[in-house]
Write a structure and sequence with these properties.
mainly alpha, two-stranded antiparallel ribbon, 44% helix, Transposase Tc1-like domain-containing protein
Length: 117
C-alpha cells in the first residue's frame, strides 16, 4: 500500500461530539468559529453538520399585525378610496413597495445571521 499524500482523518467521535456540542450550546455560532474552537478544518465541520441532518437557515424578519394596527389600516383604506374617487388613476400613480426595511435603529441586515437546527 502506498501513501496517497492525504493526512489522517481528524473526524473522530470526540471531534463530532465537540462540533455538535458547540452548535447545540450556541445555535447562532458560525461554522468557521466552530472550526477554530475544535481545531479542525472548516470542511469537516460542514460535513459533520450535514451528516447529522443540521442545515443553516437565515432568520427572516416578518411583520406582525396587532390589534392596534386595525384603526390605522382602516383609516388608510378610507383615504385611498377618497383619492380614487377624486382621481380615478390614483392607484396607477401610487408606488407600493416592501423592497427595503427601515427601522428607528437603522437598516436591518440579517445576511450573516445563521442558526442551525
Amino acid at each position: 500500500m502506498h501513501d496517497t499524500g492525504r493526512g489522517r482523518s481528524v473526524r473522530t467521535p470526540q471531534v463530532v461530539e465537540d462540533i455538535l456540542q458547540g452548535v447545540g450550546d450556541r445555535p447562532d455560532i458560525s461554522t468557521r468559529e466552530v472550526s477554530r474552537t475544535v481545531n479542525v478544518p472548516h470542511s469537516v465541520v460542514w460535513r459533520v453538520l450535514r451528516d447529522e441532518g443540521l442545515h443553516p437557515y437565515r432568520v427572516q424578519k416578518v411583520q406582525a399585525l396587532i390589534p392596534a394596527d386595525y384603526a390605522p389600516r382602516v383609516e388608510f383604506a378610507c383615504w385611498f378610496l377618497q383619492q380614487l374617487a377624486t382621481q380615478p388613476d390614483f392607484s396607477a400613480r401610487a408606488l407600493f413597495t416592501d423592497e427595503s426595511t427601515f427601522t428607528c435603529e437603522g437598516i436591518s441586515n440579517t445576511h450573516n445571521f445563521d442558526v442551525f437546527f
